[in-house]
Automatic annotation (TrEMBL):
Belongs to the ROK (NagC/XylR) family. It holds the Pfam family ROK. InterPro entries: ATPase_NBD (IPR043129), ROK (IPR000600). It comes from Tessaracoccus flavescens. This is ROK family protein.
């Protein structure tokens, strides 16, 4: 296991408005309140979808319009927040883990598209979905693993960089 560092992109504030949803971290408007699987299932249910998380997942996979539109918004929000993390960590790639990226065929493309305007031109890095095995501990959250740049891209290497930065929105606050 390479050196890693865990961040909490799930608790980046993305909604500062009066309707921002409360978060488990006791603040409100966190990314996790909008883009985690639980938040998406709840929003879907409140928008007229019928059922629980499993029903939301099934609906999304079946192309349900409300579910898909919630996932589009989530991808945009994840990408916007990821841009900030990428600016800081300057990884070689971003790997999205957890359930959410599996619910929409172009989720990672949408995340990347939302991320790009917020990063440097040199940081047009690949965003991909985790393979089985990358997912340990990732379920339930908004999770991105950021792999270090390869040796063929040495210009951004720094002795202070962790070899791998793990950024996760999975709930870790007070639990
Ligand atoms: Zn929070």
């Amino acid at each position: 296991m390479p050196t890693s560092r865990r961040g909490e992109i799930g608790h980046f504030t993305v909604d500062r408005g009066p309707d921002a949803l409360p978060c488990r971290c006791e603040r409100s408007g966190c990314l996790e309140t909008l883009a985690s699987i639980d938040a998406l299932a709840k929003a879907w249910s409140e928008a007229g979808g019928f059922g629980d998380k499993a029903d939301f997942e099934a609906a999304a996979l079946a192309g349900d319009e409300a579910a898909v539109s919630l996932l589009h918004l989530a991808a945009e929000q994840v990408g916007t927040v990821l841009a900030l993390a990428v600016l800081v960590a300057d990884p070689g790639e971003v790997v999205l883990a957890g359930e959410v990226p599996h619910l929409l065929p172009d989720f990672t493309e949408r995340v990347q598209a939302a991320m790009l305007p917020g990063v440097l031109a040199s940081q047009n890095i690949p965003v991909r979905r985790a393979q089985l095995g990358d997912e340990a501990g990732a379920l339930g959250g908004v999770v991105a693993l950021m792999a270090q740049r390869q040796a063929s891209q040495p210009m951004k290497e720094s002795p202070l960089s962790p070899s791998r930065l793990v950024v996760t929105g999975a709930p870790r606050v007070g639990y």
